[in-house]
Amino acid sequence: MNCREFEENLPLFLYEELSGEQRAACEAHAAACEACRTALAQTSRLHDVLAERPSREPSTEFLMECRQSLDEALDREQHGWGGLFRAWVAALRLRPASGFAGALALLVFGFGLGWGLRPRLANVAPAPTTNSASLTGTGEDLQDARIKGISRVAPDPKTGDVRITLDAERRVTIEGALDNDRIQSVLVYALKSYNNPGIRRDTLDALRAGAGQPKIRRALIYAMQNDPNVGVRLEALDAVRGLDWGPDLQQAFLDTVQHDKNDGVRVAAVDVLARHADRALTPALERLATSDACPYVRMKCTNAVRQLAKTGDDLSNGNQ
Amino acid sequence: MEGACVELAGKVPAQPVGRSEVEELTLIRRAQEGDRASFDVLVRLYDQQVLRLAVQVVHSPEEARDLYQEAFLKVYRSLHRFRLDARFSTWLYRVVMNVCLDHLRRQKVRKEVQTPDGQDGETEYFQTVPDERPTLDPERVTHSREIGGRIAQALTRLNPRERLVFEMRHYQGLKLRDIGEMCGTSEQTIKNCLFRATQKLRSELADLA
What we know:
- The structure holds two protein chains of two kinds.
- Chain A contains 15 helices and five strands.
- Chain A is an alpha+beta fold.
- The two termini of chain B are 13 Å apart.
- The radius of gyration of chain B is 18 Å and the shape is elongated.
- Chain B contains nine helices and one strand; from the N terminus they run H-H-H-H-H-E-H-H-H-H.
- Chain B is mostly helical.
């Protein structure tokens, strides 16, 4: 090995990425060459200096914030408000011919000109309003409604339909079955993004009935992990715990135990994990049993680890 | 130093702990079919590592969040092109590295060079790894901060590719072969890149080393 080769291999020597043979050649060269020995010492000191660089770890809150932004961006990618309402318009236009929107009735109420049209609408349900404009029932009106927010979400226990009241330049109510894709999209959007926790909680209640459907399942899991309101997170956890168990659910509960700031939520999540008895979780729970800030969570994790071990032993004995 | 590298290396698993390749393949396949839940799980398997890399190569939380988001949106948009016989982590990191490279190139053009330390508002987003050295005192903290600033400044002297390769090897603890795969280039090219980066840093930080 010559000096040039030594110099080129120096970083790899320090990162221990050389083969045994190459390493021995480097060491032999350094022992014989003072200039290269000096270079080795300098680069080694450089590594010591570089270790002084403060390591910045993203905080859990920041990670959650990034996840939420990403989720919203992905939603916008699929269907933002604009896309959502354009899709409604298309669905509403199909209604008379295809019966597609048999489960989706658009109900818009108001005084003035809109009120005058009220008798012409079948299946109209009253919704409070302060001002109104005309109603034609066509998509164009809805599209132009300039939706500002959601004022109420209410499931109808008798029919299973959901009524969503939207705040717009005039108040708009739409109603439809939970398995309707448009209704689902609005509710999922509201659960994930709406800034009123009361509405999010109501939305969650409305979604529970359809928790088996993939989009709703995903939204409930998201709420359990990311909703800023602890009450909504607990409510979501309660809804999610009864779903068909799968890898997404296991990961979600594990993330919750590891990252949720609220002790109660973490305890509830440990309980669910313990019940589903997957021994692959043991290392993670063991770590939490010693590292979680809350003594009760630590105790719960310890118990869960014991329970998992016992379940494993029982299974082993059963197999013998 | 080696200890630090070993510790960091453990944070960038090629295969996330606790999940088999079969499970991951299932998730990828479902995500390719449009299943958002599976995509979300995939994101959560890797996003901590991605965010950790992002906060190291940019100056502000906003930039880090943008990088994180841009990277995963690109993954989402191009997931259908991922071939299941390749390693997902390598493919994902290739996307992430390209996003980081583009960002660093844009930054270089704008010449908005700032040190990452001491900026207001960062502490709420980035938590400093607890320093358990018993001799820690205010004077040493100040000294470390100064050195940290010098290192950050020296790192900006590297070109974007050198910067990223150095970051991945030195601070994230990835092997050169893996970095080569992620960059879609040979191990030798990465080795040369690392060599140039080390030379530049040695020159920049000669008075400290």
